[in-house]
Each structure stands twice: as C-alpha cells, then as structure tokens.
Amino acid sequence: MSSLPPLSPEQLVKPRHFELRMGLIFFTLFVPLGIHLPYFPLWLQAEGFDAEQIAVILAAPMFLRVVTTPLLTALADRASDRAHVYVALMVASVAASAGYFLTPTYAIVLAVSLALSVVWTPHSPIADSLALSGVRRFGSNYASMRKWGSISYLCANLAGGFILSATGAQAVPMIIFVAFGAALVVGLIAPRLGRPRRASPLSAADIQQSAPKLLNAYFLYFSIGVGVITASHAFFYGFVSIYWKSIGIGDQVVGLLWGWGVVAEIGMFMVFTRVFGSFSVVSIMVMAGIGAIMRWIAFPMIWPLGLGISGFFAVQTLHAVSVALVLIGLQKMIGETVAEERTGAAQGIAYFSNGFFTAVVTLMSGPLYDRFGVDGFFAMVPIALVGLVLIGLAARSAPQRRIGR
C-alpha cells in the first residue's frame, strides 16, 4: 500500500474554534433534511400530486444520487480545499431549492428534485471528511461535533410541525429554502484544511481502488442485507405523514411523532455499548430486522384497534431497533472485518446498496399506498425478511480475518 501524502506545515495548524465551527456546520446541515423527509410529501399531496407521482418524485433523486455523490466527493478530494466545494454545493442547493417556487407542475417539481439531489447529498460526506481530518490531525472528538446534526434534525422535525400547523403545507418550500440559506452562511466559516490524506467516505476514487478487495461473499451479503432492511422503511418515509394527516392527526403531532423516533435513535446510541456491546454484528442485524418486521406489522393495526396516538408513539420507539441498530451494526461490521485503508470504500458500497434498494422500494410504495393505504406497510414485512435471509447467508460466510489485507 502506498504511503499517505505528507501534511504541509499549514495543515498541521489547528484552525481556531475547529470543533465549534464543525458543530455549527453539522447543526445547519441537517435542518433541511429534518423538514424535507417528514413534510415534503405533505406539500406534494397539497399540490395535487397522486401517490404514484409522489413516489416517482421521491425515488428518482435516490437513483441519481447513488451515481453522482461519489463523483462529487471525489472532486472534493482533489480540490485545493474541501470547504470550497462544500460552499459551492451549498450555493447550488439554495439556487436549486428556489425552483420549488415555480409553478408546481409534475415535470418542474421532478426536475427540481433531481437537480437538488445532485448538489445536496454530498454535503454530509464532505462535512464528515472535514471532521474526520480534524480527528486524525488534532485529536478532535467526532461524536461531540456530529451530535449537533442529530439535535438539529430533531429540532427541525418539531419546529416544522408547529410552523405547518399555523401556515399549512404551502410553507414547506420556503422553509427548505431558508434552511439552505442558513447552512450556506454557516458554511462560509468551514475550516480550511487543504486536501485530505484519505479519500472522503463516499469518494469514487476510493471505491474504484478498494472495491475489488471487498467483493467477497460476507461483505456483499451483509451490505445488501443491510440495504434491503433499510429499504423496508421506504413506505414509512414516503407516506406515513400523509397517512397520519388523513386520519386527522395535526401537523404538530406529526412533528412530535417523527421527533420521537429520533429521540429513540439517540437513546440507542447512548446505551448501545453498555447493553449490546458484546453482541455479534449478525445478532445485532437480526434484532434490527426483527424490529422492522414488528414495526410494519403493528403500524396498520394501531388506529383500527383504537390504540390512538399513544400507539403510534409506542411503535415509533422501534426506530431505535430498526434504524439505529442497522447504523451501528454496519459500522461495527466494517470496523471489525475491513482493513482501515478500505473503510471509505466499504462505506461507499454500503451507501450505494442502501440508496439503490430504498429507491426501488420507494418507487413501489406509491402504487401500494394508492391501492392499499396504510395496509401497504404489510408489504414491507417480506422485504425485511429478505434482508434477514441475506444477513443469515453473510453469517455462514464470515471471514476469520480482516478483509483487504
């Protein structure tokens, strides 16, 4: 393996208030997502789009970004400074999000969503790359910086619900536009660290160089299994807000329900090491898959059984199992079995798997919701089961040493 490029004297100097600046970047970075994920489908429905059209508008950008994001993160790796690329992409995101102010025809909204996806999705891996450079060079604490992203996502869920309860879904494009504007302003203070010594987590250059050594049965079965279990959440992400509104649940409560899932996820992050640290990655992923199956079986039954809003809060607690354990389990698998110099490529391949399968299931979810309504959740059960089978196949082919040496 070739040695890492040397650091210049300037790169050895820690930027002032590095952790604070990165914390602010993560905080503003996740606000648009905290609005877009729960409330963008409500805006689409308010504009008269049917379930199939909503599914296409949500799914098409997912297919596109699994191709474009590695290319743009590779561009950031080669730039004189990743912060410049981050700011440029944020400027493009502000401009693209303004497209939602145009007359919202199906063609225009789809085109704007595709364009926005290209320039929006690389924000997070580039910010991660900057933060991880700080960890390697200056001993910064990644978790203390990244936690502000989770906090802001939760705040956006809650605040969005309160704002929409007063304004209606028509305010969604404006909120997203303002959120990107705030992220751009904060992005201007991003620490300048020069080029990275390692490729960004999703960089095409890293994937191209390292992927051949990762193409073994264990890694592929595990990554695809994780992608399929993750994809079983596509119906939830695309249509749960529309369903909750259809049964009379207000925007404020919708925001609280989304926020409760994030709280449960953060809670799992806090207790994982103490409670699940000794479990194997296969056991962790099996628990995640079972949690997803329980969630999709229970969801359509809450309202008919008269369990009310408290029942939805209870089911949302399973987010800690079906989502948080997947995130933790994947990184645990990579950390235990993939050589350090291959971890970026491993994360990139896992990202591709998650994105591709989620896009496929999102595309299916429109016709499912259009025909079956909330009962479409039952169709997510066999998808999660397929993911569990793949995890089982991965267990049978587990390596005895690190991959990529």
Rg: 21 Å
Low-confidence stretches: none
CATH fold assignment of the largest domain: Growth Hormone, Chain: A
End-to-end C-alpha gap: 9 Å
By helix and strand content, what is the structural category?
mainly alpha
At the first level of CATH, the class of the largest domain is: Mainly Alpha
How are the SSEs placed, and which strands pair?
Blueprint: H1 18-29, H2 31-46, H3 51-78, H4 82-97, H5 106-120, H6 123-138, H7 142-167, H8 172-187, H9 204-210, H10 217-231, H11 234-246, H12 251-276, H13 281-298, H14 308-316, H15 319-337, H16 343-372, H17 380-396
Helix pairs in contact: 1-6, 1-7, 1-8, 2-7, 2-8, 2-11, 3-4, 3-5, 3-9, 3-16, 4-5, 4-6, 4-8, 7-12, 9-16, 10-15, 10-16, 10-17, 11-16, 12-15, 13-15, 13-17, 15-16
Provide a descriptive summary of the structure in words.
It is a single chain. The protein starts with 17 loop residues before the first helix and ends in a 9-residue tail after the last helix. The protein has two domains: 16-202, Growth Hormone, Chain: A; 206-397, Up-down Bundle (Growth Hormone, Chain: A), CATH 1.20.1250. 74% of the residues lie in helices and 0% in strands. It has 17 helices and no strands. The mean pLDDT is 90. 50% of the residues are buried. The protein has 405 residues and is mainly alpha-helical. Helix 1 (18-29) runs antiparallel to helix 6 (123-138), helix 1 runs parallel beside helix 7 (142-167) and helix 4 (82-97) packs antiparallel against helix 6 (123-138). Pfam families: MFS_1_like. Its main location: membrane. It is a multi-pass membrane protein. It is found in: Cell inner membrane. One of its GO terms (molecular function) is lactose:proton symporter activity.
